[in-house]
């Protein structure tokens, strides 16, 4: 008699409904956590941007019930407006001078605070003094410098005492000086951010690199050029691009010091767009200007993202 082995079933065990539901729940949990943020981004960013882009192609928006499709007429009007071209030029000068000065001052002060020649107490005092401008709000900064740069203010008094000027200068009301005065105030308010970031980067450079360079007989300037700057290059590029983006959006400081005047000498893209919308009530033109500013900002953002990928 032949004995045969019992047949074994090769069919897979049926899926447990409860286990499938728990697996699906675990997969959906991260999306649940992200949903409030995504909802806020859509409501506060995506929807307004889409609406502004739509307004830029129409005329008589908001102020009248029935708007009219205008195509690229609003863009043509903005790009041929002398006030917009003046604002574009002023913005380019403002952000270029501010970013360059932020970088130079921030790096100089960061290297001073990182120097072994200063004691701990001295460094602490200088850190407090140098970071003070960053602690003030834009409103406070605007009020302080309007008082300091007043024709009867402290700055003019000091310059007259030194014999550098004969009479008080109204820095914010002189068309030839207003842009440089506003740029100076923005530089004073913004350099601490560069200083703190570059100081942190300097403290992260290995000391072995400087020791090896010193053994090779290099002086301090050669070590700065061939050791310090290459190590700081990724941070400097990222900071510079970010500062260009932030400075191009500066509105409060300009509005609270000069309001874009005198004679449009400090008119920026931000103040031009604001005036078009809330002074002239040309919301379609303001929307076109806002879209142009958005495109320019996206170009800067592209370079920032690219610099981050290279790091």
TrEMBL record:
User: Gene3D superfamilies per the record?
Assistant: MetI-like (1.10.3720.10)
A Gene Ontology annotation in the biological process aspect, one of them, is: transmembrane transport
Major subcellular site: membrane
- Subcellular location, in the record's words? Cell membrane
Which SUPFAM superfamilies has this protein been placed in?
Answer: MetI-like
Against InterPro entries, the record matches this protein to: MetI-like, MetI-like_sf
GO CC annotations, alphabetized: plasma membrane
Query: What residues form the membrane-spanning segments?
Result: 31-57, 92-113, 125-148, 177-202, 235-256, 283-305
Question: Keywords, A to Z?
Answer: Cell membrane, Membrane, Transmembrane, Transmembrane helix, Transport
Q: How does it sit in the membrane?
A: Multi-pass membrane protein
What family is it from? Belongs to the binding-protein-dependent transport system permease family.
Q: What is this protein called?
A: Sugar ABC transporter permease
Source organism: Micromonospora endophytica
